[in-house]
UniProtKB/TrEMBL annotation:
<dbReference type="GO" id="GO:0019877">
    <property type="term" value="P:diaminopimelate biosynthetic process"/>
</dbReference>
<dbReference type="Pfam" id="PF05173">
    <property type="entry name" value="DapB_C"/>
</dbReference>
<feature type="binding site">
    <location>
        <begin position="79"/>
        <end position="81"/>
    </location>
    <ligand>
        <name>NAD(+)</name>
    </ligand>
</feature>
<keyword id="KW-0457">Lysine biosynthesis</keyword>
<keyword id="KW-0963">Cytoplasm</keyword>
<keyword id="KW-0520">NAD</keyword>
<dbReference type="GO" id="GO:0008839">
    <property type="term" value="F:4-hydroxy-tetrahydrodipicolinate reductase"/>
</dbReference>
<dbReference type="InterPro" id="IPR023940">
    <property type="entry name" value="DHDPR_bac"/>
</dbReference>
<dbReference type="InterPro" id="IPR022664">
    <property type="entry name" value="DapB_N_CS"/>
</dbReference>
<dbReference type="InterPro" id="IPR022663">
    <property type="entry name" value="DapB_C"/>
</dbReference>
<feature type="binding site">
    <location>
        <begin position="11"/>
        <end position="16"/>
    </location>
    <ligand>
        <name>NAD(+)</name>
    </ligand>
</feature>
<protein>
    <recommendedName>
        <fullName>4-hydroxy-tetrahydrodipicolinate reductase</fullName>
        <ecNumber>1.17.1.8</ecNumber>
    </recommendedName>
</protein>
<comment type="function">
    <text>Catalyzes the conversion of 4-hydroxy-tetrahydrodipicolinate (HTPA) to tetrahydrodipicolinate.</text>
</comment>
<dbReference type="InterPro" id="IPR000846">
    <property type="entry name" value="DapB_N"/>
</dbReference>
<feature type="binding site">
    <location>
        <position position="137"/>
    </location>
    <ligand>
        <name>(S)-2,3,4,5-tetrahydrodipicolinate</name>
    </ligand>
</feature>
<feature type="domain" description="Dihydrodipicolinate reductase N-terminal">
    <location>
        <begin position="6"/>
        <end position="109"/>
    </location>
</feature>
<keyword id="KW-0560">Oxidoreductase</keyword>
């Protein structure tokens, strides 16, 4: 049998971390060597011999965690939000100095969500209007969701490449926030509602028709196949990969 991947989970006591610990423990090709929460020293990663780190913490912690992992020869699979272009730029520099390390920043690990974002980007080239509605549990601390930001960026890039103009919008007076926020020219609306987990709709409008591309995560188990896939692939993808689609063959 090939050697098991020595995996550590950061944020192990959080909603996602609890699921990730269970998923890694259940994977025959992986061994959970550390499960750290806030306040635990990252030195424990070295003491435990971790070679792979899964970061499911908070936007304020994730950057330092990934830096520690990369500087200490580990690969990192990151689901935490907050990786804006400035942070990604700094990470690229860090990886250039540590070329053997692989880092996956995955705004969403659910395979259906990754597919929905890719479909939406493709479809958006053929519709006049596009807006995103993301809907999450009310304990979520960031808005808009990382998934919505990523989807908007993919849509904006696809439309720019295809020469599609901005979505029409005659609004000239509004209460603050009524039209959501603007991510690369795409309007994103955030709903926080008890009972929800993670959901997103991309609304595409053309003359006399609408296409809605919706994805629902009803349970955090939906993210675990993507976490495990990321762990299995990250070492063979040195450098930075943004989006699980970087490890998939979507053929779009
Ligand atoms: N990519 C994906 O598919 C998904 C990504 N996410 C993202 O993952 C992140 C976590 O989400 P969720 O599990 O719901 O959030 P939680 O708040 O439930 O969990 C985060 C955990 O990380 C802990 N933590 C904070 N700082 C550190 C640190 N430095 N080291 C170790 N642990 C730390 C927190 O501790 P404390 O409570 O003490 O602060 C908490 O237990 C969010 O950014 C979320 O958006 C969520 C779902 C899917
Ligand atoms: O906080 C969450 O719950 C989620 N966060 C990620 C995001 O911000 O996109 C992924 C998923 O939507 C769940």
């Amino acid at each position: 049998m090939t050697e098991q991947l020595a995996v550590a989970v950061l944020g192990a006591h959080g909603r996602m971390g609890i699921e990730a610990v269970k998923a890694v423990e259940a994977a025959a090709d992986m061994k959970l060597v550390a499960a750290l929460g806030r306040g635990d020293s990252l030195q424990a990663l070295l003491d435990a011999g971790a070679k792979y780190v899964v970061d499911l913490t908070v936007p304020d912690s994730t950057e330092a965690n990934v830096r520690f992992a990369v500087e200490n020869g580990m690969h990192a699979v990151v689901g935490t939000t907050g990786w804006d272009s400035e942070r990604l730029g700094a990470l690229r520099k860090l990886l250039a100095a540590n070329p053997a390390a692989g880092v996956l920043i995955a705004p969403n690990f659910a395979l259906g969500s990754v597919l929905a974002s890719a479909f939406a980007a493709t479809a958006s080239k053929y519709f006049e209007s596009v807006e995103i509605v993301e809907l999450h549990h009310p304990n979520k601390v960031d808005a808009p969701s990382g998934t919505a930001v990523r989807t908007a960026q993919l849509i904006a890039a696809a439309r720019a490449e295809a020469g599609v103009p901005a979505s029409p919008d005659a609004t000239d007076t509004e209460l603050e926030g009524a039209r959501g926020c603007d991510v690369d020219g795409v309007r994103v609306h955030s709903v926080r509602l008890r009972g929800l987990v993670a959901h997103q709709e991309v609304l595409l409008g053309g003359p006399g028709e609408q296409l809605t591309i919706r994805h629902d995560s009803f349970d955090r188990a939906s993210f675990m196949p993507g976490v495990l896939l990321g762990l299995r692939k990250v070492a063979s993808h040195p450098g930075l990969t943004v989006g699980l689609d970087g490890y998939l063959d979507l053929g779009l």
